């Protein structure tokens, strides 16, 4: 029993940074986050489709507009504050130098904005719920679900193990991309009159691919430099970047470079 407790709880507290230990969902091991992701997958694959099976699609336009507008502001503000408190996420600093209860405003803001970023990855599940409740099943692709499932775990491990500025590089890129992406979604939810302003959907995917390419460069820099950033985190970040470069490239080729068949044109 003690061995089980050690690997389920004590082990994670030993390798984790003390300053984030008491933050909600960060305390202890990743099991609470895994349970939330499991519930998300259950909703996507079982509960949601069953609930909507004999129901008409819901009109959620006003809720989508509010949700997307809020996330534009959250990610946009988070990006600029993140630039200030993390020195652009390129300076590798050992998390053990931080006080568990930091008094410096930059260190405090970094810790709490890092936690808010992690929570925002759970809030992104609402995207999928909107698709299912509106019966837009074609939007619930493997890439969409895989991306949403992985990001909360990445947020947990980054914040838990090394809540230092170097870990902030990928979140900084991510909140910038999400600010742009949710602005597009907000315009789309505003109604048909906005359709003429939605010509730049392809460019969003291009920005996402640049994001993952820069993340790969960041991980390589962490591996070859004499920094205090854990090498296994660098490997995980690089693997994450490669996986999404491959998946988004395949999506980009299918969505924007392949000639659509007559059947797909009709469905569109």
From TrEMBL:
It is found in: Membrane. GO terms for cellular component: endoplasmic reticulum membrane. It is an enzyme of class 2 (transferase). GO terms for biological process: fatty acid elongation, monounsaturated fatty acid; fatty acid elongation, polyunsaturated fatty acid; fatty acid elongation, saturated fatty acid; sphingolipid biosynthetic process; very long-chain fatty acid biosynthetic process. Pfam families: ELO. Keywords: Fatty acid biosynthesis, Fatty acid metabolism, Lipid biosynthesis, Lipid metabolism, Membrane, Transferase, Transmembrane, Transmembrane helix. GO terms for molecular function: fatty acid elongase activity. The chain crosses the membrane at residues 29-48, 60-84, 109-133, 140-159, 171-191, 232-252. The keyword Chloroplast does not apply. InterPro entries: ELO_CS, ELO_fam. It is a multi-pass membrane protein. Its EC number is 2.3.1.199. It catalyses: a very-long-chain acyl-CoA + malonyl-CoA + H(+) = a very-long-chain 3-oxoacyl-CoA + CO2 + CoA. PANTHER family: ELONGATION OF VERY LONG CHAIN FATTY ACIDS PROTEIN 7, FATTY ACID ACYL TRANSFERASE-RELATED. Belongs to the ELO family. This is Elongation of very long chain fatty acids protein. It comes from Leptotrombidium deliense.
């Amino acid at each position: 029993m003690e061995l089980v407790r050690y690997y389920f709880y004590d082990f994670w507290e030993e390798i984790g940074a003390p300053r984030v230990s008491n933050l909600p969902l960060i305390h202890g091991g990743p099991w609470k986050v895994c349970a939330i992701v499991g519930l998300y997958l259950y909703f996507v694959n079982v509960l949601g489709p069953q609930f909507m099976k004999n129901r008409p699609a819901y009109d959620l336009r006003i809720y989508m507009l509010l949700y997307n507008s809020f996330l534009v502001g959250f990610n946009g503000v988070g990006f600029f504050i993140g630039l200030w408190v993390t020195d652009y996420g390129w300076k590798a600093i050992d998390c053990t130098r931080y006080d568990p209860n930091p008094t410096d405003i930059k260190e405090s803001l970094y810790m709490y904005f890092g936690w808010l970023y992690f929570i925002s990855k759970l809030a992104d599940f609402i995207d999928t719920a909107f698709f299912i409740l509106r019966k837009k099943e074609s939007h619930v692709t493997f890439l969409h679900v895989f991306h949403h499932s992985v990001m909360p775990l990445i947020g947990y491990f980054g914040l838990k193990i090394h809540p230092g500025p170097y870990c902030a590089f990928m979140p900084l890129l991510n909140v910038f991309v999400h600010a742009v992406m949710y602005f597009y979604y907000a315009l789309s939810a505003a109604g048909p009159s906005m359709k003429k302003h939605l010509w730049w959907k392809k460019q969003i995917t291009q920005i996402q691919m640049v994001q993952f390419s820069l993340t790969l460069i960041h991980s390589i820099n962490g591996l070859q430099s004499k920094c205090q950033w854990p090498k296994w985190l660098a490997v995980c970040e690089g693997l994450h970047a490669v996986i999404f470069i491959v998946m988004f490239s395949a999506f980009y080729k299918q969505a924007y470079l392949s000639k659509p068949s007559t059947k797909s044109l009709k469905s569109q």
